[in-house]
Specification:
The chain crosses the membrane at residues 14-36. Helix content is 57%, strand content 0%. By secondary structure, the protein is mainly α. It has a domain at 14-48. The chain is elongated, with a radius of gyration of 29 Å. It starts with 13 loop residues before the first helix and ends in a 12-residue tail after the last helix.
């Protein structure tokens, strides 16, 4: 019966595996840093585009508020079934 784990007698066989591990770890860290910087850039763009606008309800007239409430599908009560 063959052994489940293979541990070579010549330890130089571990060198290529270690090199591949280091290469993939560097690639993973580089990808993580890229996504982190990209998300920070998008966050600044989002804040510049949307946070400067005033979305308060005071800008709407009473008629506009009624229209918004009538067209809002989430205002309806959700009927829940008993457990």
């Amino acid at each position: 019966m063959m052994e489940f784990l293979y541990f070579p007698e010549d330890k130089t066989e571990y060198i290529p595996a270690f090199i591949m591990l280091v290469i993939f770890m560097i690639g993973a860290i580089a990808a993580m840093m890229y996504f982190y910087k990209k998300s920070k850039k998008e966050e600044k763009l989002f804040e510049a585009r949307y946070m400067s606008q005033d979305f308060s309800e005071e800008k709407f007239s009473s008629e506009q508020k009624k229209q918004l409430e009538a067209s809002d599908p989430y205002k309806e009560k959700i009927r829940r079934e008993p457990y």
